[in-house]
Amino acid sequence: MLARTSHTLRAIQKWLWMLRPGGGVKRWVFATLTGLFLTGLGLALLLLALIAESPFHHLLLDFLPDWLRALLLVLIGALIGGVGAWRLRTLLERNVWPELHTPEGQAMLHAFIKRQQRRQGPRVVAIGGGTGMPQLLRGLREYTDNITAIVTVADDGGSSGRLRRQTGALPPGDFRNNIAALSDAEDLMKSLFQYRFPETDFSNGEDGRSDLAGHSFGNLFITTMAAITGSFEAGIAESSRVLAVRGRILPSTLENVTLCAEVRRTTEDGRTEWVTVQGESNLPRSAGQIERVYLQPAHARAYPEAIRAILQADLIVAGPGSFYTSVLPNLLVEAIRDAILASSAVRIYICNVATQPGETDGYTVLDHLRKLREHIGDAFLMALANDNYDLQTQPSPSARWVTIPPAGEWGEFQIFSGDVVDAERPWRHDSRKLAARLMEIYTKLAERSHKV
After folding, report:
1. Is 129 helix (H, G, I), strand (E, B) or coil?
2. For 444, which DSSP code?
3. How many CB atoms lie within 10 A of CB 133?
């Protein structure tokens, strides 16, 4: 008897579990019950009118007090409805969902709940590129499906740069990385998309450079898809569909922009000179301090879908990624910057864990925020930074920790911190820890704004 009672309680718990917040089930249960109630009420009124005029009017129990008649009807209805629901559940479990009580069935139910919660998650816009943003996207996809990644098109190095020069197409590399990060495709498909052809070709029995050397399959795939569909954005959309991407990956602009920088150098005789460096891939090798970056053409038109996504967003995130070569190029597109400033979303800059040689040597979190303000105004006054670092042990031989200055120096800026570093690769973020801390901050800020 106890075993049967326990089994019944577990069955009830499993069905009640589907009514947890975020599952999207309760509203339809309520709608179904409301429809049944209204239908039943209408039928009851019709039957009452018919029976009252018939010889069987005594079936209405009008010889009993009204309260007793109502109570009897409620009890009889609850009994019949309860038996019917119980039998329906038994039939469904036996014939439709027999695996519900198995571990596989529980996993399927859990996945259903998670999927429903993600579909109702916040609308997040992530702005950046390089290797940093995919780290964020891998974590965010556990919380929401409503992700829009806005990616730079200023990349001119490596495989992307070669394709850009040879075909005139926009560079696909950053798009490829973010598509892979948001993909639900099987591991084999993602590995294929990220596969890079070797630098040498031994097909003729001797060393030689292949035409495919250094190219990734994903870059070639996107470029080919863009040629077939007739536009770069359509090629990205179709590539995303093939790899079952959750969310969207959009360019900040469709114009062929070049990233330029004003660099301050110190000559051998101690003089300070200013030089202009052109090309994203040349900035880290500029042998000086980058003071300002800008785009040519200066007034590149923003991609309309990117603007729409920003204005509809609940959370806008810039970074992580190479500060001058991945994050800022998107924000330098004037309409992108203006849309961020006009947005009512929570806006957070995710600061890199480590400095980047040739770009942000010696930078603190506050230096990043100040440079952001110099370039794009007050679009990002809040930052999320890593606080799990040891100044005695640096993250890599060529980089240093990006430190958090004392709170008294922050001024108008607000800095949130947390352990978001990857223990195995301390120069990078940990996807899960970063997304968890970001969503925690977003939830608190969103609740605070609703109370105001």
Report:
1. coil
2. H
3. 30
Q: Would the CA dihedral through 404, 409, 413, 414 be positive or negative?
A: positive
In order, the DSSP letters of 135-188 are HHHHHHTTT-S-EEEEE-----SHHHHHHHHHH-PPP-HHHHHHHHHHB-S-HH
Whole-number pLDDT of residue 186:
60
Q: Cα dihedral sign for 339, 341, 345, 348?
A: positive
- Greatest mean pLDDT among 44-48, 56-60, 72-76, 235-239: 235-239
φ/ψ region of 295 (left if φ > 0, alpha if ψ in -120 to 50, else beta) reads: beta
Band the pLDDT of 205: cuts 50, 70, 90.
very low
Q: Specify which residues 346 forms β-bridges with.
A: 315
Which amino acid, residue 437? R
What's the pLDDT band for 41 if we cut at 50, 70, 90?
confident
| Structure confidence by residue, pLDDT tens digits, 90-101 | 776 666 566 556
Task: Choose among 345, 415, 355, 350: nearest CA to 389.
Answer: 355
Name the CA radius of gyration of the chain, rounded: 30
34-57 residues labelled b (16+ CB within 10 A) or e (exposed):
eeeeeeeeeeeeeeeeeeeeeeee
What does the block give as tokens for 17? 């579990």
The whole model's pTM is what? 0.76
User: Residue 380 carries which side chain, given as an amino acid letter?
Assistant: F
The verdict on domain 122-153+252-451 having CATH code 3.40.50.10680 is: yes
The three-class DSSP label of residue 259 is strand
Give dist(CA 45, CA 256) in Å, integer: 71
